[in-house]
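Quick log. Single chain, no ligands specified.
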Amino acid sequence: QVHVVESGGGSVQAGGSLRLSCVISGSMAYGYSWAWFRQGPGKEREGVAGTRSDGTTKYSDSVKGRFTISQDNDKKTLYLQMDALKPDDTGMYYCATEPRALIFFGGLIDAKYYTHWGQGTQVTVSS
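-> predicted structure:
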């Protein structure tokens, strides 16, 4: 059984920073994938950043250059460092994992390839 728990959300002014964490417990294969998604008010869920256990990363155009995804494989913890935050970054942020496969690069921030999801952590950016 794989469980996903996010933390680190909060409220911040535009231009500020936050770091999200995601801890995964349970059995994972040698190769796995995990990613951050978000859903803003009145918006569809979108992929933000994804990575694999081999270090491959992918970012959405909307966060490239401002957000950094990183991982500590020993601790089974995924991070999302968010800098230069904008009000448009407001939303619920979800961590997801596919614990048994290296998702191909083009699918790294596509929700349909992920099987285990956390409950989300809220990020609010005020202007």
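The mean pLDDT is 95.
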